[in-house]
Amino acid sequence: MFLKRVLDNVDELVFLIEGTKVSEINKKAKEYFGECIGADIFDLLILEKGNLLVDAVHDGEDKDIVEFEDKVFSSKKGGWFFFRIRYLKDVGVLILKDKTQEKYLHDTKMNMSVLIAHELKNPIGVISSAVSELMEEEDDISKIEILARVQKNIERLSRIIQQIEYITMAQLGVYTPKVEKIDVRKLVDLVVDDLEGLINTKRIEVLKEIKVDFLTGDQFILRTILRNLLSNAVKYSFENSKVIVEITKDYLSVRDFGVGIPDEELPRIFERFYRTPTGVRMASGSGLGLAVVKHLSNLADYKVEVESQHMIGTKFTVYFNK
Ligand SMILES: Nc1ncnc2c1ncn2[C@@H]1O[C@H](COP(=O)(O)OP(=O)(O)O)[C@@H](O)[C@H]1O
Ligand SMILES: [Mg+2]
Q: What is the pTM (predicted TM-score) of this model?
């Protein structure tokens, strides 16, 4: 009774094995393998690497405890899981610990983009403080201006790097939205600043209608959403037109007076890599922007809506409360 209660409340899957048959299991084991008492352990556990367990159960080794890690197929959950497996030979007990999540996080850290992004942060920090030092010591106004330009672009670069790291994590499903106080005006200025080149080339006037000072949420998510919507609005606008960015406590919207999106294209624009034929002709792109917007909105529990009329313009609205 005592033992059963303890075993039903541990994180490990526990199987008692007689011969090769399962004679007792705890609650956690049931979660992954269902009612499996009486089943043959070798039918039940489909391992990726195979015969380590066979050796262990069949006396292949003299150790009391055989321990290894392997991918195991869970019939109940219908998928592969990464387990640490321990077999206590003297008592015929098999203990499995699900390490899937840990392995996933480890793999993410090992992901190339995340790794590169991480590695770039240090040298950029060093360059940035060196430039600040130079600026402080410099009296020549024209040189200070050059250094300020360098500094501004270092900041840009580090935002891009942070972006790559977070987006990769979001794509791998391991990004958890933060709860931060967001200075709305500052955030909009940063985004407009990032897109300065594009905005100036097309001589677009960006009107900021900011009706809230601060929002609570994840800075990176909101900035990335705005950056993608604003860059689209500018890319798919005609020269010399305007784009309106509106932010209230309930929503963010970006409105343009550009080519618009034909009704029949609307359902597809959030798909990865999808670009409308007009889009392809008008500007360069990857077709990932809106997929990222959608993905991050889901993460943050935002709702995205789009209204558009061909040749008249487009308005994307992101509601903060679904
Ligand atoms: N503001 C907009 N006006 C017109 N078309 C747009 C707008 N925003 C997005 N689109 C259309 O949706 C497509 C997908 O957008 P996106 O995922 O950001 O990819 P990209 O910008 O790389 O083309 C674009 O190719 C374009 O055809
Ligand atoms: Mg885009």
A: 0.67
